[in-house]
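Researcher: Here's the sequence for the chain we discussed earlier.
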Amino acid sequence: MSRHDRHDRSPVDSGLHGPQGIGQLPQRNLGVASIVFMVLAAAAPLAVVGGLVPLVLIGGQTPIAPVFYVISALVLMLFAVGFTAMSAYVPNAGAFYTYIQTGLGRMVGSGAAMLSLWSYLLLMAASLFYIGFLIADTLDRAIGTTLLPWWGWALLAVALIGFLGYRDIELSAKVLTTLLVAETLAVVILDIGIIASGGESGLDLSPFNPANLGEGAVGLGIMFAFLGFIGFEATAVFRSEARDPDRTIPRATYIAVVGIGIFYALSAWAVVIGAGSENAVSQASADPVGFVPGLAARYVSPILNDVISVLMITSFIAAALTFHNVITRYAYTLGSTGLLPKRLSSIHVGHKSPAFSSLLFSFLEAAIVIIGLASTLDPILELYTWMSGAAMLGLVSLMVLTSVAVVVFFRRRVPQANLWRTLVFPVLAALSLSAILTTLIVNYELMVGSTTAAIIIETIMFASFVAGIVVAVVYRTRRPVAYERLAAPTELAPAEAEQVITR
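Model: Thanks. This is the structure I predict for it:
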């Protein structure tokens, strides 16, 4: 623990008054499996296969969706090498922003902190719009009525997620594990059904052919594929609550990235050959919501169609719950450093969770749903698409900065570290992610359908980064003590970490 931690968390500050107190998230017993389950739940396997694979096909205008998932996984593996190497030096729940701050300083780190929080809040909000629409659409198809408008279901989802986020994180882990097992099983059954039947025209391997990357809108295809991996950062966010974090976090990160990559690539291939390589794009465009459930009814059973329709709802809820937990732990860390109000670092005595942060962001999420309703924009084609795309811009930018921070940190602080893990792979990751970010920026106008809207949204994302830097500047000039507290509580070159990194 740094001297700032010892000073900031004095006995007076850490005293418990009523249900909450200021302090650290408790050391949990979350192992590799629990953290991987939460990351996979954030990735939402069924939501990706049933919801995003059709968008990859539609956006990319090519059947090579599996290639996009393989590319995304390879880039994230490059990134994970440096990310996990540095994890031993960043022992708190801040994830991307604390890596950036440790390597590039308080100014850039504070900007990254605000960009991180804003990006995940947008991603959370986007999930709520999709959840509300999906529940209403599923009920309308099943019983002929939605019972509640889409925004009513979205608000109920906010309440459910807020309740689980307020409670003990291990309750969230149990809920996510149950939902993940069910939805993964449904996808596996669908994949087996399609592959065993030979698909529409045989087990065609052309969707895996990278030579076809010149076809269609590759940028949009990769963008939607990459979106399916967002959330794997949660491995580091839960560091404070992990068992033996120096081992748990790297293992969970590699397992999550490799597992997600293989699962998505194979499932996307099954979906494409199920419709037929020549028909997949047109069928996905005709009915993106019913495309995958329709394949389930055709190749397995109409019952699986119904099961997948229901589990797609729970899949999105599981993803939103993980995003909510990530947001509250970001806010907890920012509150403990002083970048945000200290009250956000309150810990519930009974649940050992950042309960106040969970409540605050639940209200913010509900407010965003109401604002979305007032905007009269379409909840899927506009609100979900625009917000998830904006979140992607922010999160990929953070990953680029994180890769750069890894290189700078090890060259300055631990120059004897393994060069492959701390220089070569991080540099390759930075270059690859920069290429993806450039692709996102260039193609974002196509996503939102308006040059003006694209410029406004991109400006807002950049402004959130600048806002964090401005706060740091104000702190440095007017509140120097508070500025010192912005320092990431890192352990510089601990013996155990050196043994791991220099191997």
